[in-house]
Amino acid sequence: MKAMVLAAGRGERMRPLTDVTPKPLLPVGGKPLIVWHLERLAAAGFKEVVINHAHLGHQIEESLGDGRHLGLLITYSAEPPGALETAGGIVKALPLLGRTPFLVINGDIFCDWDLALAHQALNTNDLAHLVLVPNPGHNEKGDFALADHRIASEGSPSFTFAGIGVYRPQLFAELISGQPAKLAPLLRSAMNAGKVSGELHTGRWVDVGTPQRLAELDQELKAQP
Fold it and tell me: Which one of 40, 71, 83, 225 is most buried, counting C-beta atoms within 10 A?
């Protein structure tokens, strides 16, 4: 299974930090945020990773290179200024991801979910498997409902999408490469067709979307042995 780390966002809420540094390269706990993902992917047995980028993307390529120093083979999917949204970015990268299910991780989160679980997460008849987390203060209403490992677009209890999912390429079959497209409408359509499974992760998860959250996570990680 291949993995994709989403790293094309402008990081508006992180400004002015992201005016000169792409958000995935912002340091936290002594290393760039994206490196935490890459190290955990390598430890979970992943060998090939695709990273998309747009804003200051050359810095990401220069910093990470081909990934061999991390035990990975990294390829890059460059997007135009403004990027292509989540689903649009995935569609553009499909030639690099192949025809089998793949893992996608938002580059601006920190999470200790066991990435090795991704290899067996997707059922035969499903198009997607999502990792959900308890609702944080900045998303109290949640995103999707979860019951008996099935996810619905509406219902209770509702949890927050962690930004971690396993997808079949067929989920994106109706999209056109190079066109911006959001992920949520695709997921909701698949949910309505009963083709999305999921799980609740109750471990550590942070949406590293603001300078304050970045600083808090940095202090937490530096305080660990």
Answer: 83
